[in-house]
Design a protein that fits this description.
InterPro entries: CysJ-like_FAD-binding, FAD-bd_FR_type, Flavdoxin-like, Flavodoxin/NO_synth, Flavoprot_Pyr_Nucl_cyt_Rdtase, Flavoprotein-like_sf, FNR_nucleotide-bd, NADPH_Cyt_P450_Rdtase_alpha. This is Nitric oxide synthase. This protein is of the alpha/beta class. Among the domains are: 150 residues, Rossmann fold, CATH 3.40.50; 111 residues, Elongation Factor Tu (Ef-tu), domain 3 (Beta Barrel); 162 residues, 3-Layer(aba) Sandwich (Rossmann fold), CATH 3.40.50. The strands form twelve sheets. Strands 18, 19, 20, 21, 22 and 23 form a six-stranded parallel sheet that branches. A six-stranded antiparallel sheet has the order 33-27-37-25-26-34, with helices on one face. Helix 6 crosses helix 8, helix 21 crosses helix 22 and helix 32 crosses helix 33. The N terminus is likely disordered.
């Protein structure tokens, strides 16, 4: 929303220049298609719908009933009267007693009219007050429903002089006994699938036609324009089928005023458009069966029904008759056809005396209604996408009118088609018993095998996709797969191995994906993400083409990071845009809040939803028990297979595991500032890596380098001492696991390597063990007390969460604490996560050091349990601390385009950093030195270039560059990195001013970067609001959060706007790419 939202949304007419202010949206009590979404979904055919058999909670019924009755009495000028108060009390008592109430006829009439008035997709709302209401809430049977509908059609048709009518059947009670009209419209044409795959009739009704035939509808000779029977359901009972008498339906043969041959095409259409499958929602009461009608706008028939390629698609036939040149789009033959077909529709309806109107008249009528609504109600919900006519759009007045889309009650809502979950009747013949012979037994076996295979082929196709960085998502997906395979045609794929074109063939797609880094896809999901982006950019035809195609996404992530489950949200939104039906809302499982329990709950929910979607009955208790068979795999069946004569290629294995081009860089320089020796020392490491000018390591300032750490020898030795059946250290081995079919298969996570390399490079020994791992350890414990303790941690989520929060116990610590555990090496390693690379902001510019990458990292080391527990050491910084000059580091470059320098260097920049967060800014100032032709001095660079580096280029004028203000914080002044370089940058006017905050300086009060920003608030506000400054923030998450709050506070205080408006300005700042963050760590 905009800043002026609290005062109304301004909507401009770009033809007249007139501006309307919509305030009615402030009464919006319904969620829209874009609520809590990152992508707007309002252009979907069904952008929002009522869940199947949804029963509204009592408190919601009370709320909506009061709002409706207030509006009803306000409309009748009786608001606040005794009658009003008495009615509210009566309704409140009924809802409290029965969870529902009965609308009076006058209330029903008012509600029906308001639902039409509030319908954002209807262009004919100018007639809302003339709607005729037939009250059929008394009917009890499908036969009575049929009689009411025939009465509706006769009254509405009125010999061609159509009247707007709605018939309201009994409301929803318990969510299971609904009255439903299964047809999408009361009158529509059948569609028949021919053996060659072509369609006779209306392609949009093929599935429903097949359903009608299966229910017993008989037709002697099929044509392109057969009226479908009515399929009606009363009280949730099985549906009944009724044929509409021929004399009830008024049909119009189509002719053209200028082309005699047009009538020979045999085209026709019906007079009455009556929507039958929408739910009428009024005052908290839902009416699943409430068919209503208006009349046709010509383009609905001429453009959409007859010329749409997915409907009757007569364009080429008409073009051929008109002898048009169809060899090129530039002849505009399609436009010519569309015009003539619409002429024929309007001419035919007028000649038969049937009410209709053209799209220009309809548009002008709506504009009058729109202006009147703005005057009388202060707003008008309107869906521009639907209201603008499908032809001559830009010459319609609607095209140039801005509109606001929101949803009010009462309303007409989309709902799941009643027939979508109905099974076809299956005939079963009884076979007489007789003594079988061997031949008969063999035939029976083959027959059973054939029938089982045939039945299996009829099961829904469910594909499970995963993208996993640490192995957690893959582990969850594998568990889900073994549960699904007994119910569906289930297949399991890593996203890196999946052909995205296959999405079109699936009944259901289930994705379990983790989010990596700052909202990125895991390495084995990166290509899948790029494919989804490419599909959107190229407007590809890849879609979930089955109408029953559905999807569900489980996102894994940590709320410690700002872009929580960002990849999961991306996949969920893209699947919806591709036409899939969301089976369940996106579920985000938090690593910090019992992720495994969240997965188990989600798995049960998604299984139940799939079974309901495809009419599969399953006993949940048995289903849950079936799942335990796979859980037992964790107790396991794993082994090492020795490979004779093979050679190890660590770099290739790293590349294969992480789906990246991993390179080697040599350490050519290293220094440490601070105390790295003590248990709680604070130190910063500076590394100079020689890339040998590798093409795989080309970077820009602000990009990241992924470094692959190694477990040190001490932790590896401690680990192997607690294991059984360890292979020889230098033997080339392949880890194998046993699948449910008792067959051994290679562990897909890691290619063959030595046991030494496996433990040092690929197995994560420093993370907290999962509950699955603890379950395995419990099964291997000899001491009963230790077994019981481990079982509690493995099964009780609250105990596990508390145990993890107490202090950084890794798998080696657990094995030493529970000394009676003797676990098989292969079994344990097969369920431990894969060791992941760590990402560091590059602190150099390739323009200055073209064959080098510089890293800056803070050593992670602390005492757990408030200083009384173990010493926790960061894995990768400990590894970097130990390496020496000449050692090689395995790494790969990762672009961080959201943190690059601005395209327009004349804009001012505000750099905010703490600790090692200064790293990317060092790359920035090096790049600015290069661009401005300023000599650059550095201890590292001196060894290569001499004391001063001087670029051999024509530097650009200094006045083309905006000012740079650096705010930097660390614990003590003595720990401040790059202090001499910063002074040089000030001297050469690369950096305009610097501000330093020290939080542990002796003899001084604590000061943080956000304190400096607040103190400098007037200038910060002016630069952001008036000068278009770019703000860059790099450091730990906690610091970044405080900086964000401070920036908003500054905008609010010095921009003279309120808090809500300041937050909106800040959101816009992010959306424009002027507020950039590169954050890390949870503390």
């Amino acid at each position: 929303m905009w800043l002026e939202d609290r005062h109304g949304v301004e909507l401009r007419n770009h033809t007249t220049g007139k501006v309307f202010v919509d305030k009615l949206f402030l009464k919006n009590i319904c969620e829209g298609p874009c609520s809590e979404q990152e992508v707007c979904a309002s252009s979907r055919m069904v952008s929002r719908q009522v869940p199947d058999n949804y029963k509204r909670p009592k408190e919601k019924v009370l709320q909506q009933a009061k709002e409706f009755l207030d509006g009803f009495f306000r409309n009748s000028k009786k608001f606040g009267s005794e009658e009003h108060i008495s009615r509210l009390l009566e309704v409140h008592k009924d809802i409290e007693d029965t969870s529902r109430y009965h609308l009076t006829y006058d209330e029903l009439v008012y509600g029906c009219g308001m639902a039409w008035r509030n319908a954002p997709r209807c262009v004919a709302r100018v007639q809302w007050s003339t709607l005729k209401v037939f009250d059929a809430r008394h009917v009890q049977t499908a036969q009575e429903m049929f009689h009411s509908i025939i009465e509706h059609i006769n009254y509405a048709t009125n010999q061609g002089r159509l009247r707007s009518v709605i018939t309201v059947f009994p409301p929803r009670t318990d969510g299971q006994s609904d009255f439903r009209v299964w047809n999408s419209q009361l009158i529509s044409y059948a569609g028949y699938r021919n053996p060659d795959g072509t369609i006779k009739g209306d392609p949009s009704n093929v599935q429903f036609t097949e359903l009608c035939l299966s229910l017993g509808w008989q037709i002697e000779q099929t044509t392109r324009f057969d009226i479908l029977p009515l399929v009606l359901q009363a009280k949730g009972l099985p549906p009944e089928i009724f044929v509409i008498p021929d004399d009830v339906v008024l049909q119009i043969p189509l002719a053209h005023p200028s082309f005699p041959w047009f009538q020979e095409l045999g085209l026709r259409w019906y007079a009455l458009p009556a929507v039958a499958n929408m739910l009428f929602d009024c005052g908290g009461i839902q009416f699943p069966a409430a068919p209503f009608n208006g009349w046709y706008m010509g383009t609905e028939i001429g453009s959409r029904d007859l010329c749409d390629p997915q409907r009757y698609d007569i364009s080429e036939t008409v073009a051929s008759k008109m002898e048009l040149d169809t060899s090129s789009h530039t002849t505009l033959w399609k436009d010519t056809v569309l015009l003539e077909v619409n002429k024929a529709v309007l001419y035919s309806y007028q000649m038969c005396g049937v009410t209709t109107w053209d799209h220009h008249t309809a548009s002008e009528s709506f504009m009058q209604f729109y202006e009147n609504e703005m005057k009388t109600r202060g707003g008008c919900p309107a869906d521009w996408i639907w209201l603008v006519p499908p032809m001559s759009s830009s010459i319609s007045p609607l095209f140039h009118q801005e509109m606001a889309l929101y949803f009010l009650k009462p309303s007409f809502e989309y709902q799941t088609a009643a027939w979508s979950n109905t099974p076809k009747k299956l005939a079963v013949k009884q076979i007489a018993k007789r003594t079988p012979k061997f031949r008969a037994v063999m035939i029976a076996v083959r027959l059973c095998s054939y029938l089982y295979h045939s039945r299996w082929l009829k099961r829904p196709k469910v594909v499970l996709l995963f993208a996993s960085q640490s192995g957690k998502a893959e582990n969850f997906a594998t568990k889900a797969f073994f549960k699904f395979k007994s119910l569906f045609q289930a297949k399991l794929y890593c996203m890196a191995d999946y052909d995205i074109n296959q999405l079109q063939d699936q009944h259901a797609t289930i994705a379990i994906v983790s989010t990596f880094g700052d909202g990125e896809a895991p390495s084995n999901g990166d290509e899948f993400k790029k494919s989804l982006v490419k599909i959107k950019e190229e407007n590809s035809k890849i879609r979930f083409v089955n109408k029953s195609s559905c999807f569900a996404v489980l996102g894994l992530g940590s709320t410690a990071y700002p872009n929580f489950c960002a990849f999961g949200k991306f996949v969920d939104n893209r699947f919806q845009e591709l036409g899939g039906t969301r089976l369940l809302a996106l579920n985000c499982a938090d690593e910090l809040n019992n992720q495994e329990k969240a997965f188990q709950t989600w798995l049960l929910d998604v299984t139940n939803a799939l079974c309901k979607q495809y009419l599969i009955r399953v006993d949940n208790s048995n289903f849950v028990n079936k799942g335990s068979s796979f859980d037992q795999l964790n107790t396991v069946s794993a082994r090492f297979s020795v490979i004779e004569g093979g050679k190890e290629d660590v770099l290739q294995v790293l590349s294969d595991v992480h789906h990246k081009e991993v390179s080697l860089a040599r350490v050519s320089g290293k220094s440490i500032i601070g105390d790295s020796g003590s248990s709680e020392g604070h130190a910063t490491i500076f590394l100079q890596l020689n890339t040998f000018n590798s093409e795989n390591l080309k970077y820009k300032p602000g990009d990241h380098l992924a470094v692959f750490p190694r477990n040190n020898q001490d932790i590896i030795q401690r680990f192997t001492l607690r294991l059984k059946n360890c292979p020889a250290t230098r033997s080339l081995i392949q880890l194998q696991v046993q699948n449910p079919n008792q067959k051994w298969q290679n562990w897909k996570k890691i290619a063959p390597c030595t046991f030494e390399t496996l433990l040092s490079r690929f197995v994560d020994l420093t993370g907290s063990p999962s509950q699955d791992t603890l379950r395995l350890l419990a099964s291997s414990a000899i001491d009963q007390t230790e077994k019981a303790q481990l079982n509690i941690l493995a099964e009780d989520s609250a105990s596990y969460k508390q145990w993890v929060s107490l202090g950084y116990a890794n798998i080696v610590d657990v094995l030493e604490d529970f000394s009676s555990v003797r676990v098989d090496a292969a079994a344990l390693i097969s369920i431990l996560p894969v060791l992941q690379p760590r990402f560091y902001s590059i602190s150099s510019s390739a323009a200055i050091v073209p064959t080098e990458i510089h890293l800056t990292a803070s050593v992670v080391r602390c005492l757990t349990l408030d200083g009384e527990g173990r010493v926790f050491k960061g894995l990768c910084t400990s590894y970097l601390e130990e390496i020496r000059r000449g050692d090689f580091v395995a790494c790969y470059f990762k672009s961080n385009s959201s943190f690059h320098l601005p395209l327009y260097p004349s804009k001012p920049m505000i750099w905010i950093a703490a600790g090692s967060g200064i790293a990317p800014f060092r790359g920035f100032w090096q790049q600015r030195c290069f661009e401005k032709g300023v000599p650059f001095h550095s201890t590292f660079i001196t060894k290569v270039w001499g004391k001063f580096w001087k670029p051999n280029i024509q530097h650009q004028a200094s006045n083309r560059y905006g000012s740079i203000y650096l705010y930097y914080g660390c614990k003590e002044k003595a720990l401040q990195p790059f202090s001499s370089e910063v002074d040089a940058m000030i001297h050469h006017k690369i950096i305009s001013r610097t501000f330093f905050a020290f939080s542990r300086e002796k003899g001084k009060s604590k000061c943080y970067v956000q304190d400096l920003l607040w103190k400098d608030g007037p200038r910060v506000s002016a630069q952001i609001l008036n000068e278009g400054a770019y703000v860059y923030v790099c450091g730990r998450l906690a610091m970044a959060a405080q900086v964000e709050k401070t920036i908003i506070k500054i905008i609010c205080q010095y921009g003279n706007i309120n808090q809500d408006e300041a937050e909106m300005v800040f959101k816009n700042l992010k959306a424009e790419g002027r507020y950039k963050t590169d954050v890390f760590g949870a503390s």
